[in-house]
Design a protein that fits this description.
The protein has helices at about 1-15, 20-25, 50, 160-165, 185-190, 195-200, 250-260, and strands at about 60, 65-70, 75-80, 85-90, 95-100, 110-115, 120-130, 140, 150-155, 170-180, 205-210, 225-230, 240-245, 250, 285. The protein is an alpha+beta fold. Strands 2, 3, 4, 5, 6, 7, 9, 10, 11, 12, 13, 14 and 15 form a 13-stranded mixed β-sheet that branches. Strands 1-8 form a two-stranded parallel ribbon. Belongs to the alpha-carbonic anhydrase family. Keywords: Lyase, Metal-binding, Signal, Zinc. Its cofactor is Zn(2+).
């Protein structure tokens, strides 16, 4: 029991440090989203917590049952409105952007505050989830209706290190943004087009400048909030989720490009979303 718990912990610590944790821990990088290796399979790369945890993500958002919270302020995104260099990587499970810790100190380093969060959370990566067609893709759903794309901006609490952030339920704060299909407005992800086109092969990288605010709704006061988990192995229940109520836009050609990315086994990564999880008594709050 201790050995398996330590393995999950160490896997998560390495992922926070922006390395490929799977190989280093023995879970392997060959987990995926199919019936054979996906979250509902018996693949050991999805540990027991993924199947038995009571605070798992993603979830469905039912607007009729959310509780309005008047005490939350707007989320404040600092360092999101100026360009900075990132490394875009195809890790076989998504396309991720890292390197924010190298942007400098103070207002140059992207972080979030406000919105009922405990202090400051530094951005450590963002990545995307999509589906095999435009009717699927997002991990979270609204009234059981999915969106074609969902972006996750993953932040770590500034007063904690990678290990400590796993041991408290608010060690990480993820901002999720839903994208709707609009072929007339590819602008939110336009800056990533060249990068995503050039990293189709597994484990390839490219560096470019991005302006994060282009991918975030202008209204940062309206969001859903709940306590949950990572949606990938090892499904650690250490996250505060903020799901923006206002959507951004994505074009069909951008979705098609994402579906061309290869996994480690040289299969097309046509979808990379986890199935919905039970609320198990959790309350979803809404601000704005």
């Amino acid at each position: 029991m201790f050995g398996s718990t330590f393995l999950v912990l160490w896997m998560f610590v390495l992922s926070i440090d922006q390395t490929d944790a799977s190989t280093a821990t023995g879970f392997g990088t060959e987990w995926g989203y199919t019936q054979k290796d996906g979250p509902n399979s018996k693949d050991p790369n999805w540990p027991e917590l993924c199947h038995s945890g009571k605070h798992q993500s993603p979830i469905n958002i039912d607007p009729s049952s959310v509780v309005k919270n008047e005490s939350f302020s707007s989320l404040v995104f600092t360092g999101y409105n100026h360009p900075g260099p990132v490394t875009i990587t195809n890790n076989g499970h998504s396309v991720t952007a890292t390197g924010f810790d190298k942007w400098g100190s103070g207002s140059l380093t992207p972080y979030i505050t406000g919105g009922g969060l405990y202090g400051k959370y530094n951005l450590i990566n963002f990545h995307l989830h999509w589906g095999e067609d435009n009717t699927l893709g997002s991990e979270h759903q609204l009234n059981f209706v999915p969106f074609p794309l969902e972006a996750h901006f993953v932040h770590q609490r500034a007063d904690l290190n990678a290990t400590q952030s796993l041991l408290v339920p608010d060690g990480l704060a993820v901002v999720a943004v839903w994208f709707i299909l609009d072929n007339r407005n590819p602008a939110p992800l336009k800056q990533l087009d060249d990068a995503y086109e050039s990293i189709d092969p597994f484990n390839t990288t490219v560096t470019l400048n991005v302006t994060l605010s282009d991918m975030i709704p202008a209204n940062t006061a309206a969001f859903y909030r709940y306590s949950g988990s990572l949606t990938t192995p090892g499904c650690n229940e250490a996250l505060v989720w903020s799901i923006m109520n206002h959507t951004m836009t994505v074009a069909n050609y951008q979705l098609k490009q994402l579906r061309q990315h290869n996994t480690e086994l040289n299969h097309k990564l046509k979808h990379n979303y986890r199935n919905l999880q039970e609320l198990n008594g959790r309350v979803v709050l809404r601000n704005g």
